[in-house]
Amino acid sequence: MPSIQDALYNYLTIYYVSRARPEDTAAKTTLDFFSDMLMKEFNIPDWTIEEKEHEIIAHCSIGNSIKNYRFPKELISCMLQQMEEYPERYA
Questions:
Q1: Per-residue model confidence (pLDDT) at position 1
Q2: Residue 20: left (phi > 0), alpha (psi -120 to 50), or beta?
Q3: pTM for this one?
Q4: pLDDT band (50, 70, 90) for residue 18
């Protein structure tokens, strides 16, 4: 089983792909998968995403507290950049 940080990384990566490609049903399905994983496997009912200049912060409600997970923006945007550079691979 992945860690919360791994699941959030995967969620955020596909979140930005899905946002940039709203017609991409595979991205939407994958986004739903990771959203369900966060809610059901990690008991995170709620989270917000904060974008800063060089990082993305996921604020997660876990129990009675908020935990923050930070990711470099360039790491999260890597998949989307690949899709934009090589669209023939991601039809």
A1: 67
A2: alpha
A3: 0.89
A4: very high
- Residues 67, 60 contacting (CB under 8 angstroms): yes
Q: What are the pLDDT digits (tens) for 45-91?
A: 999 999 999 999 999 998 899 999 999 999 999 988 888 888 888 77
Please state, as a whole number, how many other Cβ atoms lie within 10 Å of the Cβ of residue 89: 8
What is the four-CA torsion angle of 4, 5, 10, 11, rounded to 10 degrees? Answer: 60
Residue 89: what pLDDT?
84
**Nearest alpha carbon to residue 40 among 17, 12, 11:** 11
Strands ordered across the beta sheet of 65-72: 46-51, 55-62, 65-72
Buried b (16+ CB within 10 A) or exposed e, 32-57: eebbebbeeebebeebeeeeeeeebe
Q: Closest by alpha carbon to 68, among 3, 28, 8, 1?
A: 8
